[in-house]
UniProtKB/TrEMBL annotation:
Protein name: UMP-CMP kinase
Known role: Catalyzes the phosphorylation of pyrimidine nucleoside monophosphates at the expense of ATP. Plays an important role in de novo pyrimidine nucleotide biosynthesis. Has preference for UMP and CMP as phosphate acceptors.
One of the record's GO molecular function terms: ATP binding
GO biological process, any: pyrimidine nucleotide biosynthetic process
């Protein structure tokens, strides 16, 4: 069964239970979940592929502005299915083109768009390991990986 990494971003964290209900209704299994607070260093590491883009600093600040819910979701074709359920990046556009999507329902704009989803099998593997390191792995304190542990 394919797995993907889903995040409920800080702007939608207060509505995470509604998001999870829709995730389960859409046939995904929540294999793992953790609520955590990203540090600036961890956010920059997570979004390393966007290095140099003008919105990166703002994006990292936003991602550190509150807690996130990280989940490993599984389903046949989970990567594509979760991106479809999330909807397009811009929540404003999503409200006209995909009104039932997570970003239309729970997001605000192009940055505060409620959710993240891996965009390829390679990204899913990397992002799942980022938030849920294999057991026995020693957390990299220098990069703040220990922050990925669920909070009380
Ligand atoms: P995706 O999350 O739909 O895959 P990406 O292009 O990978 O979109 O961008 C990652 C995240 O960066 C988006 O989800 C959004 O929060 C933010 N972002 C993308 N483009 C912009 C922009 O033009 N302005 C502000 N934030 C943006």
């Amino acid at each position: 069964m394919e797995q993907t990494l889903a995040l409920v971003k800080p702007d939608a964290f207060a509505r995470k239970d509604e998001v999870v209900l829709k995730v389960v209704s859409a046939g995904f299994t929540v294999e793992k979940s953790a609520e955590l607070q990203l540090t600036p260093a961890r956010a920059a590491q997570f979004y390393a592929e966007h290095a140099g883009k003008p919105f990166l600093d703002d994006l990292c600040n936003f991602m550190c502005s509150g807690r996130v819910l990280a989940m490993v979701l599984s389903k046949e074709g989970a990567i594509k299915a979760w991106r479809e359920l999330m909807g397009p990046t811009d929540s404003v556009a999503a409200r006209s083109t995909a009104p039932d999507s997570m970003r239309a329902l729970f997001g605000t704009d192009k940055q505060k768009n409620a959710c993240h989803g891996s965009d390829s099998p390679e990204a899913a593997a990397r992002e799942i390991a980022f938030f849920f390191p294999p057991s026995g792995e020693i957390p990299d304190l220098a990069t703040g990986a220990a922050q990925a542990a669920p909070m009380e």
